[in-house]
Automatic annotation (TrEMBL):
Domain of life the protein comes from: Eukaryota
Family of this protein: Belongs to the glypican family.
InterPro entries: Glypican, Glypican_CS
Any Pfam family matching the protein: Glypican
Keywords: Cell membrane, Glycoprotein, GPI-anchor, Heparan sulfate, Lipoprotein, Membrane, Proteoglycan, Signal
Name used for this protein in its record: Glypican 5
Role summary: Cell surface proteoglycan.
Subcellular location: Cell membrane
Record's signal peptide: 1-25
Length: 550
């Protein structure tokens, strides 16, 4: 079977040869042109094709009082081809939409993978540049944390609260050994484990772990849900691209598209009303997807619009190292008190001299460092998401308008031209034209629609489920202020628009913006396979550093 573009070009060439007399309904004198088209469409000669018109008493669908150039076997073959044409038409119609979603789903996933590695890079540089003594020991905890972030984003069953706690549990023994009691320490695993277990009771990092949990939960979950929803969108399109053609629909398609050939009317096109009745009948079940598809795109749009500030994963991940620094500084400042608490819980350490390990971070990365510059409108994850949603919005009525588009764009004759009405060439179609959807088909004169389609019903159920997920993950503005801690705890403004009314005002509160060039870090390109000239990073928040008045 040849591809659709080649088939169309070849068929048009052959149709031009058959033009003379092929649009008249007086009856065909020879079946030569019908034979040519039939043989070419089937890619090879077929035995038993009539040379001249014959009685068509054996035909089941292409019944006519006039002599016919079709046999029963030709009709059966045309029936198969009509179904194949329908599948091809559906796939062609959805190709732009399918490519839009699949391309962006892949792009979002790759961007998130790159973003995770950039955030991990920032955190590693923080330890190498600021806390060099503990950098080697911290490397495993940093790597595990960002591995868990990726696993969660891409659908694994991991808990953000648990991996945030694990990170800070692992960090405390390092801070205690290298900053609070530097130089000499007990290197026993038992003592370090005791310190690690004591972290949640002592709270050496204040409420920063809770802030990280809140920010991770608010930003990771919407991004995870967005990826899941896009994958479902691809599944919906793949399913409808291979829609089962019912027996009634197959017969109607045969009558509309190929029965004219039997009478030598190879250039004829169906009347618009006739085509609409056939296609609306065939796609009646698919049209039931329309309100749910519309709601699906609207929910994606609402979720995307809400993903800003600390709901923006780019903002959160690329500021993670700043919160880690705040946590370490807080523990360092409270070192004497923490040392007394650890001594009470774990006892005094056996003080033995140790040699601080050197930073293991790649020197080439450290050499380049984090290049800071103002962003000049470079593409961010948020801007790409907005562009995608704007394009997707154009396809909100895809399933409701599909039957009409197929007729208007390709299948049906233009208004005012003679057309095929299922029996003959006429000036206009006189039967009533029904609407879209199952209920409207009760009066369809061309296709009988029975019952419901279990596959479509299953897709509708999946769409309803993901819509609930999308709506449940949309942050609500009235919940954007989160109280954490008590007695000097920080009030965190979750909205990304932090102004003087948020208590962030004053000079020096402007947002820090950083751009990390991928060309400065070849390992990013190697890891993700991206060939980007520049990856733009947004780092910082106007509300950070309040606690320490930096």
């Amino acid at each position: 079977m040849m591809d659709a573009p080649t088939w169309r070009v070849g068929w048009r060439c052959l149709l031009l040869l058959a033009f003379v007399g092929s649009t008249r309904s007086e009856g065909v004198q020879s079946c030569e042109e019908v034979r040519k088209l039939f043989q070419w469409r089937l890619v090879g000669a077929v035995k038993g094709l009539p040379d001249s018109p014959r009685a068509g008493s054996d035909l089941q669908v292409c019944i006519s009082e006039k002599p016919t150039c079709c046999t029963r076997k030709m009709e059966e073959r045309y029936h198969i081809v009509a179904r194949e044409d329908m599948q091809q038409a559906l796939q062609t119609s959805s190709s732009t939409l399918k490519f839009l979603i699949s391309r962006n789903a892949a792009a979002f996933q790759e961007t998130l993978e790159t973003l995770i590695r950039q955030a991990e890079n920032y955190t590693s540089i923080l330890f190498c540049n600021t806390y060099r003594n503990m950098a080697l020991d911290a490397a495993a905890a940093v790597q595990e944390f960002f591995t868990d972030v990726g696993l969660y984003l891409f659908g694994a069953d991991v808990n953000p609260e648990e991996f945030v706690n694990r990170f800070f549990d692992s960090l405390f023994p390092l801070v205690y050994n290298y900053l609070i009691n530097p130089g000499v320490t007990d290197s026993s695993l038992e003592y370090s484990e005791c310190i690690r277990m004591a972290r949640r009771d002592i709270s050496p990092f204040g409420n920063i772990p809770k802030r990280v949990m809140g920010q991770m939960g608010r930003s990771l979950l919407p991004s995870r849900t967005l990826l899941q929803a896009l994958n479902l969108g691809i599944e919906v399109i793949n399913t409808t691209d291979h829609l089962h053609v019912s027996k009634e629909c197959g017969r109607a398609l045969l009558r509309m598209q190929y029965c004219p050939h039997c009478q030598g009317l190879m250039l004829s096109k169906p009347c618009m009303g006739y085509c609409l009745n056939v296609m609306r009948g065939c796609l009646a079940h698919m049209a039931e997807l329309n309100p749910h598809w519309h709601a699906y795109i609207r929910s994606l749009e609402e979720l995307s619009d809400a993903m800003h500030g600390t709901y923006d994963i780019e903002h959160v991940l690329l500021n993670f190292h700043l919160l880690v620094n705040d946590a370490v500084m807080q523990a360092h400042l409270d070192g004497q008190k923490l040392s007394e608490q650890v001594n009470k819980i774990c006892g005094r350490p056996i003080r033995t001299p140790t040699q601080s390990p050197r930073c293991s971070f790649d020197g080439s990365k450290e050499k380049h460092g984090m290049k800071i510059s103002l962003r000049n409108g470079e593409e961010t994850l948020a801007s790409r998401r907005k562009e995608f949603i704007n394009s997707l919005r154009l396809h909100r009525t895809f399933y409701g308008a599909l039957a009409d588009q197929l007729c208007v764009n390709d299948l049906a004759a233009a208004d005012g031209l003679p057309c095929w009405n299922g029996e003959d060439i006429v000036k206009s179609y006189t039967q009533p034209v029904v609407g879209n959807g199952i209920k409207a088909q009760s009066g369809n004169p061309e296709v009988k629609v029975k019952g419901t389609d279990p596959v479509i019903n299953q897709i509708i159920d999946k769409l309803k489920h993901v819509i609930q997920l999308l709506q449940g993950r949309s942050p609500k503005p009235d919940k954007w202020e989160l109280q954490m801690g008590s007695g000097g705890g920080i009030i965190e403004q979750i909205s990304g628009d932090c102004d003087d009314e948020d208590g962030c005002g004053g000079s020096g509160s402007g947002e820090v913006k950083r751009t990390l060039k991928v060309t400065d870090y070849p390992w990013l390109l190697k890891t993700t396979g991206w060939h980007l000239k520049l990856v733009s990073l947004l780092v910082g928040s106007r509300c950070l550093r309040q606690h320490y008045h930096w």
